[in-house]
Amino acid sequence: GLLVLMEGPDASGKGGAIKALVGHLDPRHFKVVSYAAPTRQEKQHHFLWRFYRELPGLGEMAVFDRSWYGRVLVERVEGYADRTEWKRAYKAIVDFEESLCLESIILVKFWMHVSDEEQLKRFEGRAADPLKRWKLTDEDWRNREKNRIYEEAAEEMFSRTTHRLSPWEVIGADQKRYARIAVLETVIRRVEEGM
172 forms bridges with which residues in the sheet? Predict the structure, then answer.
């Protein structure tokens, strides 16, 4: 199976990259799953529990729009997970990913990186477009003020969770077309390596 994880700041082009990746595929052979804050039921389980159900089987493909990395990003920064919980998560994540990869999943992890200036331009574009306004929330503006803190969390995440079977792929996403092509080329390369 192929599992692609998309992470990155708000308006970094995760959705557009996902669309480029699966837009021409037969929808019977892939699924795209978006993850937001865990539900009450999900909080009663181990933080990885809610992701198990959506993992791709043999010959299948899944794309996760955000993932278990929420534990060491948003949950860390916003204080939803205490220090002990998010520190412990690095090892749990790497062990989990290594077991998936050894069981025949090709795991490709993307971080879509966008500059503050480009992110602001995209936010303002969304605010001005009635068809895209729904994508922009007060929370997005609040998160923007924490960009440096999120970057710090991301740096630690890269260093603690890159492993031989699944390194992080950091994509410069200020230019949408470049970023989408880079994502496509990377997935193709990683599938070829995985076969």
Answer: 113
